[in-house]
Amino acid sequence: MLFNSLLSENSLATGSRFIIDGAVSQLSTSYCKITLNKRGADEYTKISFPLKYGIFSEIETSDAILQFNLNHEIVRAKGKGRDWIQPSEWLKRSMGNDWIYYSTGGYTGVFEAIGEYYLPNLPYPTNSLIGGKPFNEPVINKIISSWQEIIFKSLDSIKTYNTELLADKEKFINFLESALANNSENLQKKAEHLFETSGGRITVMPPDARHVDYDIIPLIISDGCLYKCKFCRVKSDKPFAVRSDIEISRQIEKLKDIYGSDTVNYNSIFLGDHDALNSDKETIISSAKAAYSSFEFEKSYIKGCNLFMFGSVDSLMSCDFELFKTLNGLPYKTYINIGLESADQETLDLIGKPLTSSMVEEAFMEIQRLNALLNNIEITANFIMDENLPKGHYPSFLRLVREKIDKTKTKGSVYLSPLRINKPSREVLFEFNRLKTLSRVPTFLYIIQRL
Ligand code: SF4
After folding, report:
1. Domain of 395?
2. In this structure, is residue 232 part of a structural domain?
3. Which of 222, 227, 336, 350 should be mutated for ligand 1, with most atoms under 8 A from CB?
4. Each residue of 286-318: b (16+ CB within 10 Å) or e?
5. Residues with Cβ < 8 Å from 11, sequence gap 6 or more?
6. Which of 253, 276, 312, 380 is most buried as measured by Cβ atoms within 10 A of its Cβ?
7. Is the beta carbon of 229 within 6 A of some atom in ligand 1?
8. pLDDT at site 229
9. Which string of DSSP letters, residue by residue, matches 27-45?
10. Is the pLDDT score of 3 beyond 80?
């Protein structure tokens, strides 16, 4: 057995709420190597190398690597055997308790398509045009079903080792026992508690949350949306309503409890749900400020902090500029995603979106104006894609993203969202690539992902 206690990174403890016993420590047995409080990347970066973010603990055996957050809940896993699909690919478990497989895509244009080097393959039906079927692979299902056994064997290997010299072997045992207690059933219960706290599952996260690998804390400040569009699969039945200050504060307290010690690995908030921008200015600002102080984002291990929300044409166009000015002055980089869907009237009518094409065009131009004015805010937009839309849809899209914009921009992404679920289509992908090439704003595919 080899034992190391690496205290060199204790300097992180200064002024930080999370380092109680936060030194990096390592212990090896003939079965496993355990590293506590390993330091991953502290800044979200777009890089082809598979970075792991935050502070986490790890169990490595000859067959697998498991990683755990600071609540000792499993968050990532990968196999090490020859049968593992690709050495740089891995599984991530979300706070909603979904296992997501990150692949290089099996498609050379993953970065061009989604703006990220790794493609999240989701275990539920979604609108992705690319990716394979990793959940059909036995090796993936084996690790999803056997990680608890690996923890159990690791615990056994430490307990049975004669380690009189190891005064602090206890902390490795405590970690493993705690990780074992966070079994599949308890993780599912915790996810359900999160959904209850939010008032329902987050059925869709903003596409911009890709910038933080969808590691967001959801704070729901309003429910429902204005339009209840016919085509939309994620809408709720609730009429639009803003939540009270008391409801929002109670939610924050529950979220602090749910995210617990691992809050330090978060630097981003999602103000939900479908049209938080339609909430009154005071609620948006006070919620953003309360989240910043309650989750102590200034002490996050991850640099910077971000705020994500959805908006609509009406909420954008009726917004008091003071709101944008105030948001722009907060410590957050704010991303607001507006559902435009189409600038073609026939398409809007077909999908049951109660807007006119001129309202969509005005909103698009307002987005351009605001993006040029506000350095700390990026407003992005969604449009739909499908093989069977009216013939005016794509030309109207290009009129906005090409003809109405005089030069190429790096800010103000547009996301194209395929309408069909579980129907990868070469034709639609070909069309996406054509539109992307012609667009003068960054253009990506929007894969609908829940929390
Ligand atoms: S697309 Fe947006 S506005 Fe329309 S129903 Fe869905 S959530 Fe509501």
Report:
1. 199-445
2. yes
3. 227
4. ebbebbbebbebeebbbebbbbbbbbbbbbbee
5. none
6. 276
7. yes
8. 92
9. EE-SS-EEEEEEE-BSS--
10. no
Q: What digits encode the pLDDT tens for the residues 70-120?
A: 999 999 999 999 999 889 999 999 999 999 999 987 656 889 999 998 999
In whole angstroms, what is the distance from residue 338 CA to residue 380 CA? 6
Mean pLDDT along residues 324-349: 98
For ligand 1, is residue 252 a contact (CB within 6 Å)? no
pLDDT for residue 164? 58
| CATH code of 295's domain | 3.80.30.20
Do 204 and 177 share a domain, yes or no? no
**Which of 234, 338, 350 to mutate for ligand 1's pocket (most ligand atoms within 8 Å of CB)?**
234
C-alpha dihedral (141, 147, 150, 151), degrees to nearest 10: 180
Ligand 1 centroid distance, CA of 130 (Å): 24
Q: Which residues partner with 369 through β-bridges?
A: none
Q: Pick the residue whose CA is nearest to atom 5 on ligand 1.
A: 228
Question: Mean of the pLDDT values across residues 40-52?
Answer: 90
CA distance 226 to 248: 21
Same domain, 217 and 97: no
| Number of folded domains that form the chain | 2
